[in-house]
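Course assignment 3, question 2. Fill in each field.
Student: A.L.
Task: Predict the tertiary structure for the chain below.
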Amino acid sequence: MDAVSSMRYGLTPKLDLRWGMTDHVSQSGGGSAPLAGVGDQWASARYRFHEQGRWTPAMALSYGIKIPKANPAKGFGTGFTDYQFDFIASRDLGKNHLDFNTVGTLAGELKGHDGAPQFGLAETRQISKKLAWSLESYGGPQPGTSDRYGAGLAGVSYALRPRLVLDGAYVKVYTASAARQQFSFGLTYAMRPRLRTVPAGSRVASLLGR
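Answer field:
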Protein backbone atom coordinates (compact mmCIF):
# COMPACT_ATOMS: atom_id res chain seq x y z
CA MET A 1 0.00 0.00 0.00
CA ASP A 2 1.27 3.47 -0.93
CA ALA A 3 0.12 6.81 0.48
CA VAL A 4 0.99 9.55 -2.02
CA SER A 5 0.54 13.32 -1.83
CA SER A 6 1.31 16.09 -4.28
CA MET A 7 1.04 19.85 -4.66
CA ARG A 8 0.67 21.91 -7.85
CA TYR A 9 1.08 25.66 -8.11
CA GLY A 10 0.08 27.61 -11.21
CA LEU A 11 2.75 30.24 -11.67
CA THR A 12 1.00 31.54 -14.81
CA PRO A 13 -1.92 30.19 -16.90
CA LYS A 14 0.65 28.30 -19.03
CA LEU A 15 3.23 27.25 -16.43
CA ASP A 16 2.74 25.18 -13.29
CA LEU A 17 5.15 23.70 -10.76
CA ARG A 18 4.61 20.36 -9.02
CA TRP A 19 5.95 18.52 -5.99
CA GLY A 20 5.00 14.92 -5.29
CA MET A 21 6.03 12.46 -2.61
CA THR A 22 5.26 8.94 -1.43
CA ASP A 23 4.64 9.60 2.25
CA HIS A 24 4.32 5.96 3.30
CA VAL A 25 4.94 2.56 1.73
CA SER A 26 3.96 -0.74 3.35
CA GLN A 27 4.48 -4.18 1.91
CA SER A 28 3.48 -7.60 3.24
CA GLY A 29 2.52 -11.07 2.06
CA GLY A 30 4.26 -13.70 0.01
CA GLY A 31 5.78 -15.30 3.10
CA SER A 32 8.13 -12.35 3.73
CA ALA A 33 8.37 -10.05 6.73
CA PRO A 34 6.32 -6.82 6.54
CA LEU A 35 8.21 -3.73 5.41
CA ALA A 36 7.37 -0.05 5.83
CA GLY A 37 9.02 3.25 4.98
CA VAL A 38 8.87 6.29 2.72
CA GLY A 39 9.17 6.53 -1.06
CA ASP A 40 10.91 8.88 -3.47
CA GLN A 41 9.95 12.50 -4.20
CA TRP A 42 9.44 14.26 -7.56
CA ALA A 43 9.77 17.91 -8.55
CA SER A 44 8.59 19.01 -12.00
CA ALA A 45 7.51 21.92 -14.17
CA ARG A 46 5.00 21.87 -17.06
CA TYR A 47 4.67 24.51 -19.78
CA ARG A 48 1.81 24.66 -22.30
CA PHE A 49 3.31 26.13 -25.44
CA HIS A 50 0.34 25.75 -27.80
CA GLU A 51 -3.38 26.29 -27.21
CA GLN A 52 -6.05 24.10 -28.73
CA GLY A 53 -7.03 25.27 -32.20
CA ARG A 54 -9.71 24.33 -34.65
CA TRP A 55 -7.73 21.37 -35.96
CA THR A 56 -4.83 21.06 -33.51
CA PRO A 57 -4.68 19.94 -29.86
CA ALA A 58 -3.21 21.86 -26.97
CA MET A 59 0.42 20.84 -26.42
CA ALA A 60 2.73 21.00 -23.42
CA LEU A 61 6.19 19.94 -22.29
CA SER A 62 7.14 18.78 -18.82
CA TYR A 63 10.45 18.14 -17.06
CA GLY A 64 10.79 16.30 -13.76
CA ILE A 65 13.53 15.08 -11.44
CA LYS A 66 13.27 12.29 -8.90
CA ILE A 67 14.81 12.93 -5.49
CA PRO A 68 15.85 9.53 -4.09
CA LYS A 69 14.47 9.33 -0.55
CA ALA A 70 13.34 5.68 -0.51
CA ASN A 71 15.43 2.91 1.05
CA PRO A 72 16.91 0.70 -1.72
CA ALA A 73 17.54 -2.10 0.80
CA LYS A 74 13.76 -2.43 1.27
CA GLY A 75 13.11 -2.37 -2.47
CA PHE A 76 11.16 0.91 -2.29
CA GLY A 77 13.55 2.78 -4.60
CA THR A 78 16.82 2.56 -6.50
CA GLY A 79 18.78 5.17 -4.56
CA PHE A 80 19.60 7.02 -7.80
CA THR A 81 18.32 10.27 -9.32
CA ASP A 82 16.00 9.89 -12.33
CA TYR A 83 14.93 12.44 -14.95
CA GLN A 84 11.65 12.53 -16.87
CA PHE A 85 10.69 14.37 -20.06
CA ASP A 86 7.03 14.49 -21.13
CA PHE A 87 5.20 15.62 -24.25
CA ILE A 88 1.45 16.06 -23.74
CA ALA A 89 -1.23 16.63 -26.37
CA SER A 90 -4.83 17.32 -25.25
CA ARG A 91 -8.07 18.00 -27.09
CA ASP A 92 -11.74 18.45 -26.23
CA LEU A 93 -14.28 16.65 -28.42
CA GLY A 94 -17.72 17.57 -27.14
CA LYS A 95 -18.07 16.09 -23.66
CA ASN A 96 -14.94 13.98 -24.18
CA HIS A 97 -11.41 15.07 -23.34
CA LEU A 98 -8.45 13.16 -24.86
CA ASP A 99 -4.87 13.17 -23.56
CA PHE A 100 -1.88 11.60 -25.32
CA ASN A 101 1.40 11.37 -23.41
CA THR A 102 4.92 10.45 -24.47
CA VAL A 103 7.20 10.00 -21.46
CA GLY A 104 10.96 9.57 -21.69
CA THR A 105 12.71 8.42 -18.50
CA LEU A 106 16.45 8.52 -17.76
CA ALA A 107 16.85 6.20 -14.79
CA GLY A 108 19.98 6.42 -12.69
CA GLU A 109 22.15 3.35 -12.19
CA LEU A 110 25.72 2.43 -11.25
CA LYS A 111 27.00 2.93 -14.80
CA GLY A 112 25.21 6.24 -15.37
CA HIS A 113 21.67 6.38 -16.80
CA ASP A 114 19.48 4.14 -18.91
CA GLY A 115 16.56 5.53 -20.91
CA ALA A 116 13.20 4.20 -22.07
CA PRO A 117 10.02 5.73 -23.55
CA GLN A 118 6.44 5.05 -22.51
CA PHE A 119 3.17 6.10 -24.11
CA GLY A 120 -0.35 6.64 -22.82
CA LEU A 121 -3.78 7.58 -24.14
CA ALA A 122 -6.63 8.63 -21.85
CA GLU A 123 -10.26 9.62 -22.39
CA THR A 124 -12.32 11.52 -19.83
CA ARG A 125 -16.06 12.04 -20.28
CA GLN A 126 -18.22 14.39 -18.25
CA ILE A 127 -21.37 12.47 -17.26
CA SER A 128 -22.93 15.27 -15.24
CA LYS A 129 -21.87 18.54 -13.64
CA LYS A 130 -20.26 16.62 -10.77
CA LEU A 131 -19.49 13.16 -12.16
CA ALA A 132 -16.93 12.06 -14.77
CA TRP A 133 -15.35 8.76 -15.79
CA SER A 134 -11.96 8.02 -17.35
CA LEU A 135 -10.39 5.25 -19.40
CA GLU A 136 -6.64 5.01 -19.98
CA SER A 137 -4.08 2.66 -21.48
CA TYR A 138 -0.36 3.17 -20.97
CA GLY A 139 2.97 1.35 -20.93
CA GLY A 140 6.26 0.65 -22.67
CA PRO A 141 9.83 -0.53 -21.97
CA GLN A 142 11.31 -0.25 -18.47
CA PRO A 143 14.70 1.46 -17.93
CA GLY A 144 17.49 -0.82 -16.79
CA THR A 145 15.64 -4.06 -17.63
CA SER A 146 14.31 -6.00 -20.57
CA ASP A 147 10.84 -6.11 -18.96
CA ARG A 148 7.95 -4.17 -20.45
CA TYR A 149 5.03 -2.64 -18.59
CA GLY A 150 1.46 -2.25 -19.78
CA ALA A 151 -1.73 -1.37 -17.94
CA GLY A 152 -5.32 -0.26 -18.40
CA LEU A 153 -7.18 2.05 -16.02
CA ALA A 154 -10.86 2.75 -15.39
CA GLY A 155 -11.78 5.49 -12.94
CA VAL A 156 -14.45 7.90 -11.76
CA SER A 157 -14.32 11.32 -10.12
CA TYR A 158 -17.02 13.17 -8.20
CA ALA A 159 -16.97 16.85 -7.26
CA LEU A 160 -18.36 17.23 -3.75
CA ARG A 161 -17.76 20.95 -4.04
CA PRO A 162 -16.20 23.14 -6.74
CA ARG A 163 -12.84 22.89 -4.95
CA LEU A 164 -13.13 19.36 -3.53
CA VAL A 165 -13.04 16.26 -5.74
CA LEU A 166 -13.03 12.56 -4.82
CA ASP A 167 -11.78 9.95 -7.27
CA GLY A 168 -11.07 6.25 -7.50
CA ALA A 169 -9.60 3.92 -10.09
CA TYR A 170 -9.02 0.27 -10.89
CA VAL A 171 -5.81 -0.64 -12.73
CA LYS A 172 -5.30 -3.94 -14.55
CA VAL A 173 -1.67 -4.72 -15.39
CA TYR A 174 -1.25 -7.08 -18.33
CA THR A 175 2.49 -7.70 -18.04
CA ALA A 176 4.46 -9.63 -15.42
CA SER A 177 6.61 -6.76 -14.13
CA ALA A 178 4.19 -5.46 -11.47
CA ALA A 179 1.19 -6.32 -9.31
CA ARG A 180 -1.59 -7.51 -11.62
CA GLN A 181 -4.43 -5.52 -9.99
CA GLN A 182 -4.35 -2.20 -8.20
CA PHE A 183 -6.95 0.04 -6.59
CA SER A 184 -6.45 3.73 -5.87
CA PHE A 185 -8.50 6.38 -4.07
CA GLY A 186 -7.76 10.08 -3.98
CA LEU A 187 -8.86 13.49 -2.82
CA THR A 188 -8.09 16.80 -4.57
CA TYR A 189 -8.54 20.21 -2.97
CA ALA A 190 -7.95 23.42 -4.93
CA MET A 191 -7.34 26.82 -3.39
CA ARG A 192 -6.05 30.23 -4.40
CA PRO A 193 -3.04 31.06 -2.19
CA ARG A 194 -2.12 34.69 -1.74
CA LEU A 195 1.36 34.35 -3.18
CA ARG A 196 2.92 36.85 -5.51
CA THR A 197 3.32 35.54 -9.06
CA VAL A 198 5.18 36.91 -12.07
CA PRO A 199 4.15 40.57 -12.53
CA ALA A 200 1.78 41.06 -15.44
CA GLY A 201 3.18 43.10 -18.32
CA SER A 202 6.82 42.09 -17.81
CA ARG A 203 8.88 40.34 -20.48
CA VAL A 204 9.01 37.19 -18.40
CA ALA A 205 5.22 37.27 -17.96
CA SER A 206 4.72 37.67 -21.70
CA LEU A 207 6.96 34.66 -22.40
CA LEU A 208 5.20 32.51 -19.81
CA GLY A 209 1.72 33.48 -20.93
CA ARG A 210 0.61 35.80 -18.18
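Instructor remarks: The domain at 2-208 is CATH 2.40.160.40 (Porin). Residues 203-208 form the longest helix (6 residues).
Grade: pending
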